[in-house]
Amino acid sequence: MTDHPVTELRLVVTADDYEEALRFYRDVLGLSERAAFSGPDGRVTILDAGRATLEIADPAHAAFVDRVEVGRRVAGHVRVAFEVPDSAEATRRLAGAGAEVIAEPTRTPWNSLNARLEGPAGLQLTLFSDLE
Q1: What are the beta bridge partners of residue 43?
Q2: Boundaries of each VOC domain copy (predicted)?
Q3: What distance in Å separates the CA atoms of residue 114 and residue 8, rounded to the nearest whole number?
C-alpha cells in the first residue's frame, strides 16, 4: 500500500439535462474532457477538473462560509468549489451561459474572491480566486 491509497476523487452528478450540463461544465466553465462513453444504457462524460480535494466541514463552518459568500445559509450538504484565475470574469461568463448568480464575487476573510452560483443539475458552485 502507498502513502496515498486513493489516487483520484470523482464527483458523479446525475443531470436530467445531460447535454446542457455537459455544455455548461465542459464548454463554458472549461473542464477538459478526459473520456466519454455511450451505449444502450446511457451516456457519461468524465471531465478533468485538475487537482481534487475533499473538504469536510461541520454545520457551523458551512453556515459561516455561506454567510461570508452569500449573507445567509443557502447550500445543501454538497457544494462544489472551483478555483479559477478570475472569479469575477468566470461569474459573468457562467451567468451568461445560464447559471443563477446567488452572490456576486466577495472578498473573504481568507483573502480570496468568492462567488456563489447555481449551475446545471442543481449544483451549487463556489468560484474562488486567491488574491495573494
Answers
A1: 38
A2: 7-130
A3: 25
Q: 79 lies in a domain?
A: yes
**70, part of any domain:** yes
Cell 442543481 -> residue: 122
Kindly state whether residue 4 falls inside one of the protein's structural domains: no
* Digit-coded pLDDT (tens) for 53-69: 989 999 999 999 999 99
For residues 103 and 70, is the Cβ–Cβ distance under 8 A? yes
C-alpha to C-alpha distance for 3 and 15, rounded to whole angstroms = 35
26: in domain:
yes
Whether the model pTM is above 0.85: yes
Domain range enclosing 100? 18-130
Note the pLDDT tens digit of each residue in 109-127.
999 999 999 999 999 999 9
